[in-house]
Design a protein that fits this description.
Blueprint (H helix, E strand, L loop, with lengths): L3 E5 L4 H12 L3 E6 L7 H10 L4 E4 L5 H10 L4 E4 L6 H6 L1 H21 L4 E7 L22 H19 L4 E7 L1 E3 L18 H9 L6 E4 L11 E2 L1 E3 H17 L9 E4 L5 E2 H12 L5 E4 L14 H7 L7 H14 L6
Helix pairs in contact: 1-2, 1-8, 3-5, 5-6, 7-9, 7-11, 9-11
The structure holds nicotinamide-adenine-dinucleotide and uridine-5'-diphosphate.
Nicotinamide-adenine-dinucleotide binds next to helix 1, helix 5, strand 5 and strand 7.
């Protein structure tokens, strides 16, 4: 029988790709999103690509009665909880918003799951929970120590989900710690559409490439790395989406096993510097991208990349796409949709 997955935040950048991948893997999907950082057009386009419309409900994860209505309308087998706020700088300026949406929103959702006997959850966490550990690569047992309220909310919800799952018969959950999601579906129809000023490297370069921004500022070339620029583990959003399907397959296939909440890194295991990313982008779009070196960005870690072994062992998941492919796919989306979904 077809299983139905609730994707909170399913209209967003990662959520739309996860929804697409779930549909093409034979799941039914209900998207629940308040569209505060996304457009319903992403869902329309996912429907077009898959010929299998996901259900879409506009609503807020802090709204218990909206969640009750959803769980009464659909028989949900598992939840992927992607909804949340994700801008690090905003979380420093307005931590109250982050604790409200990310933490209170999550507990409201988990309580609704309790009321409706839904016992499987996958949570979108982040490599940002690691802070700045001294040794690389980052394994799931590397020390945590988030450097900002956004990271703190992710670590809190991890703990909440682990506690709930451990204490509740029949519950099985998984925490996915994403590294740096980039790229877009190969169709070029869905992709990242930041509202306002893009904070992250890929969307910023993409907007320089389309002429919407003058130049890329490279935040520091005095790090202790080969070319002096900081290193991250960029992961293609379709690899990430496939990781979610594997996580759901795993939870639903092991229903009889005792309740647990594995933590799993989703990264490639390969680190790339800002300069390496810039070169790969220039090759993808076929022209130079203007840049200048500026000061380091406050709060940035020098190096971050995953040990991806656990995902391979537990889920049989490995990434398929390399950096040139990430840039190529991101550029296809950006070139075809220079104004995003607007
Ligand atoms: P996104 O902003 O594109 O998607 C989040 C979605 O949640 C949006 O569609 C937004 O409208 C929705 N949303 C926000 N508040 C809501 C609320 N109160 N009720 C219902 N819906 C709400 O971001 P994304 O990049 O797709 O991130 C998805 C998840 O992955 C987030 O939880 C984020 O913290 C996490 N994550 C993202 C990254 C990244 O670099 N993009 C890295 C690690 C973890
Ligand atoms: N970066 C940069 N210029 C930008 C945006 C980002 O040089 O306009 C650098 C940033 O300092 C970091 C890397 O690119 O070293 C990735 O940044 P992003 O914000 O995408 O990811 P995060 O730092 O959150 O891992």
């Amino acid at each position: 029988m077809t299983k139905t997955i609730l994707a909170t935040g399913g209209a967003g950048y990662i959520g739309s790709h996860v929804t697409l991948e779930l549909l093409t893997s034979g799941y039914e999907v209900v998207v629940f999103d308040n569209l505060s950082n996304s457009s319903a057009k992403s869902i329309e386009r996912v429907s077009r690509i898959t010929n299998g419309a996901p259900h879409f409900i506009e609503g807020d994860v802090r709204d218990a009665s909206a969640l009750d209505h959803l769980f009464e309308t659909f028989s949900i087998d598992a939840v992927i909880h992607l909804a949340g706020l994700k801008a690090v700088g905003e979380s420093v300026a307005h931590p109250e918003r982050y604790y409200d949406v990310n933490v209170a929103g999550s507990t409201t959702l988990f309580n609704a799951m309790f009321r409706h006997n839904v016992k499987h959850a996958v949570f979108s966490s982040s490599a940002t929970v690691y802070g700045e550990p001294e040794t690389m690569p980052l394994t799931e047992s590397s020390p945590t120590g988030p450097l900002n309220p956004y990271g703190a909310t992710k670590l809190m919800v991890e703990q909440i989900l682990q506690d709930i799952t451990g204490a509740s018969p029949g519950w099985r959950s998984m925490i996915l710690r994403y590294f740096n999601p980039v790229g877009a579906h190969v169709s070029g129809e869905i992709g990242e559409d930041p509202l306002g000023f893009p904070n992250n490297l890929f969307p910023f370069i993409a907007q320089v490439a389309t002429g919407h921004r003058d130049l890329l500022q490279i935040f520091g070339d005095d790090y202790n790395t080969a070319d002096g620029t900081a290193i991250r583990d960029y992961i293609h959003v379709m690899d990430l989406a496939r990781g979610h399907v594997k996580a759901i397959d795993y939870l639903l296939a092991n229903e009889s096993k005792e309740n647990s909440t594995p933590i799993v890194n989703l990264g490639t295991g390969v680190g790339s510097s800002v300069k390496e990313v810039l070169i790969a982008w220039e090759q993808a779009c076929g022209f130079p991208i203007k840049s200048e070196i500026t000061a380091r960005r406050a709060g940035d870690v020098q190096i971050s990349y995953a040990d991806a072994q656990k995902a391979k062992e537990l889920l049989g998941w490995e990434t398929l796409y390399d950096l040139p492919r990430m840039c190529k796919d991101h550029w296809r989306w950006q070139k075809g949709n220079p104004e995003g979904y607007r």
